[in-house]
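Database export, one record per block. Field names are fixed; values are copied verbatim from the stored entry.
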Amino acid sequence: MQTGDEILHEGDQVDPPASEGVLLDSAVDWILHLDAGKLTLYRGGYTQFERQRRERQALDQKFAKKQDAERKRIIAFVDRFRATASKARQAQSRLKLLAKLEPAAARVADEVREIVIPEPDRLLSPPIIAFDGVAAAYEPGRPVLRRVTLRIDNDDRIALLGQNGNGKSTLTKLISGRLAPSEGRITRADRLKVAYFAQHQLDELDPAGSAYDHVRRLMPDAPEARVRARAGAIGFPGAAADTPVAKLSGGEKSRLLLALACFEGPHLVVLDEPTNHLDIDSRAALIEAINGFAGAVILVSHDRYLLEACADRLWLVQNGGVAPFEGDLDDYRRLVLATADDEGRDGASKSDERRSRSETRRAAAERRAELAPLKRRITALEAEMAKLGGRMAEIDQALADPKLYENDPGRAAKLAKERADAVGALAGAEEQWLELSGEYESAAAPP
C-alpha cells in the first residue's frame, strides 16, 4: 500500500453517499468492508466499492444456485440407490461429497430484512396540514421561525434543506405536533396520524425491554402469536424478538424505533436523519419503503443519495423562513458556495444578486401555479391506474380458484370480461399519463 493512501473502515455507523463527487468518492483511495465477521479491502472510492461488492454478490448467488442444483442431484442419487448393493459404495461417496458442499453456502450474503411502512386506513382530504403565518420560539421574543405559510398534501415527498441551526428540526416538530406555534395557526386534517422519527429518540427506548416488549405495549390485548408475528414483521423474528434493546446495534434500534413510530399506519411520516445508524443495504431497504409508501413524507438528512432517490420537492429553511427551492441538490450546493463567497463582497453587489435570485424564485413559483391543474390531472390518473391495478389483482385472485368455474361459470365469464375491460382502461390511462407527464416536465423545465 502506498504512502498517503486513505482507508475507510466501513461499518454500520458510516453514512456513505452514493453519487459522484461526494465525500467518499473524492476523499478515500481504499475501502475496508466488514461483513459477517470478515474484512475485505477494495481499491477506489465508494462508487467503485459498491460496483465491486454487487458483482461479488451476484457471483456468490450464481455459485449458490449452481451448488444447490448439485446438492439436489446428489440427494436424488443417494435416495434412489442407497438400498441397492451395487450402488451402495457410490451412494456413500456422494454423501461425503454432499458434506463438503455444505460450508460454501455461507459465502452468500444474508438477505437484508425488508422495511415496511404500514399504509394508512384511508387517505384524507388535502391539505393534510396547513400553516398560516406560523412562528416558533423556544424563548419568548426569540423566534426560530417566523411567518411560515405552507401546506402538505397526501402524496408529498419533501426534503428540508438548510444549514444546521436554521430551524429544520424545529419545523419537523411543528409538523409532527411536538411543538406548539408561538404565533399563527396550524390546521390538521381530521383523524390525521403522524409518525415522527429522530435519532435522539433512540434514548426513549427501554434498554431492558425487548422488541417483543415494545410491541406488546402497543398490542396489550393481542394474543401471544399475533404479537410475535408483528415483531417478526418489523425485523425481529423468533429469538431476536427477546433480545434486550441494550444489546441491539444502532441499526437494529433504528429499525425498531421506526417500526414503533409507524405502527398504526400513518398518513404522514417525518424522518429526521433516518440513515445515521443504517448500513448500506438497510439504507436501500429504507428507500424502497419510503417510495412504496402511499402517504406523505418529510425528510431531513445529510444523505444526498436518500434525498435524490425519494424527494420530489425541496424546501429551503433559512433566515427564519421556509420557501420552496426551485432547483435540485446541485443547485443548492452552488447556492451554499455562492452565499459563502458573498461574505467577501460589498453590500450592493450582494443585494443585486439576492434580488435576481428572488425574481427567479418568484417566476418559478408562478410557473408552478400555472401548472397546478395539469399536476392535478396527472395525480388523478395515477390514482385511477392504482385503482385499476388493484381491481385486476382482485379479479386474478378470484379467477385462480378452480371451484369458481364449476360452481358459478357465469360469474367467471363476467369477471374475465371485467378484467379485459380493466386492461384496456389501464392502457389508456397509462398512455394519457405518459403524455401529460411529458407535457408537465417540458413546461416545468427552467427556461
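Remark 1: The two ends are 50 Å apart (CA to CA).
Remark 2: The CA atoms of residues 112 and 282 lie 7 Å apart.
End of record.
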